[in-house]
Amino acid sequence: MTADNEIAQARTHFEAKKYRLAAKETAAVLKVYPNDPQALELKGKLAELARRALEKKQKIEAALEQAEAALEGKQFTRAKLIAQQVLDVEPENKRAKRVIEMADEGQQNKMLQDVVKGLLPSVGGGETPSSSQGVQNQSGADIPSLPLPGLSGQ
Q1: CA dist 77 to 5, 39, 96, 121, Å?
Q2: Is residue 3 exposed (0-12), middle (13-18) or buried (19+ Cβ within 10 Å)?
Q3: Is the separation of the CB atoms in 98 and 80 below 8 Å?
Q4: CATH code at 2-116
Q5: Could you read off the pLDDT of 66-87 as tens digits, one per residue?
Q6: Cα separation of 135 and 115, whole Å?
Q7: Alpha-helix runs per DSSP H in the chain
Q8: Separation between Cα atoms, residue 102 and residue 106, nearest integer Å
Q9: Contact partners, residue 106, CB within 8 Å, separation at least 6
Q10: SS3 of 123, please?
Q11: Is-contact 128 120, C-beta < 8 A?
């Protein structure tokens, strides 16, 4: 009779998604009645739930590693897409949020660099003014090039 009451309590905890309490109650019943069919059934459900949770965690971890690798490879759109898929499953994942922020920054920096490269005129031999010694103005005087902060290759 007490086993039935404890299993009923364990099921109540399980249905309320209080899995630790459900596991504790089930273990207590199985300790006294190791072959109780209701306790064994609930233990199986709890084990399946734990297995699924572990699988989910492993999949999220693998996806975040892929997103971070894409970020390092300057594949900002791919990194952002993978991180967003993680957020769809786990909305409060800080690591995924950080990947998205870094991908956005990377995309903005790349666009800015592309714009700057498009604005810099080519000087003979394919050099940009920043890589040559200087640029002559209209009067023929040599104007030294100034380094621009944030641009590579200077």
Answers
A1: 55, 49, 13, 29
A2: middle
A3: no
A4: 1.25.40
A5: 999 999 999 999 999 999 999 9
A6: 20
A7: 2-15, 19-32, 37-72, 76-89, 94-119
A8: 6
A9: 71, 74, 76
A10: strand
A11: yes
